[in-house]
Amino acid sequence: MTQPIARRGVVLVPSDFSLDWVARMKDCGLNLLGLHMYQKENDLIPFLDSDEGKAVLDAAREAEIDTEYEIHALSLLLPREHFEKHPDWFRMDLRGARQADGNLCPMSADGMAVVCDTARELAQRLVPTTNRYYFWPDDGKLWCHCPECSHLSDADQNVMVMNAILGALRDVNPEARLACLAYHTTLSRPESAEPDAGLFLEWAPIRRCYRHAVNDPTCSVNREHLAGLVGLLELFDPAEAQVLEYWLDASMFSRWKRPSVKLPFDADLMLRDVAHYASLGVRSITSFGCYLDEAYASLHGDPPIDTYGSILSSELIES
Length: 319
What we know:
The protein has helices spanning 21-27, 44-49, 51-62, 74-77, 109-123, 154-172, 220-233, 250-253, 267-279, 294-300, 305-312; strands spanning 2-3, 7-12, 32-35, 66-72, 91-92, 98-99, 132-136, 177-182, 199-203, 242-245, 284-288, 317-318. With 319 residues, it is an alpha/beta fold. Strand 2, helix 1 (21-27) and strand 3 form a beta-alpha-beta unit. 44% of the residues are buried.
């Protein structure tokens, strides 16, 4: 007997809802909506407070589609204006200078206290229907290389900070679970830090190759990515893990510039990818779908949302 992927989702930014996404998701069997924001725009909470945002959440609730909030959060949790008075809260670069450009120093107890306090506040504003939270590190930024941190990999520092945030979230919601994002410099298994119970893996292979399936042995890029995922799934429960893919991410394929290019969506490649993720025990799969909005439809025709949903709903997993 077989069964489909249990959590089948898409991750969108507020501007994408010029397209009737919730109705399309319901029609093609998607059951999870992730709400994201581009860090520089910081528009998610204003969207949620707007009539449009409230209508999206109401429609998702009526359609029995879960909602989650996936954001690069550390510059929100540790506001950069603290840098002038407290540079020691922030990361040290390879030349020994403190930098406020992203992330922080995990060994700063005072800085981490601010992070945890702000995480408690944000968790009361961004309330998922699933108890799963996503307060990611800053987008593409490096971690700390101070004397106390220099022996720690980026993946180790990521786990340490997420463990602390998870503890803060459980002050607000005892059932909280928190994503540990494997992305850019944290795609490999941490060397020393151990994830606390309640951290789940979210694997986002933004630099993988989309000309080859993720398990194609002839592709050196995907071989390296997949080896990292296999190692991470030895540390994290595959049944709780989430793959965050980019099959539908017109923004990435457009290099985050409008007007969007036509999405190079390959249904056969996605089917092979999903089947392999399923074989590893992964039961939660989503993709960014950014820039798939009315402007995209006007330029390139209807995006392949139905095909995407039908692949994730296919009976791929041996139960």
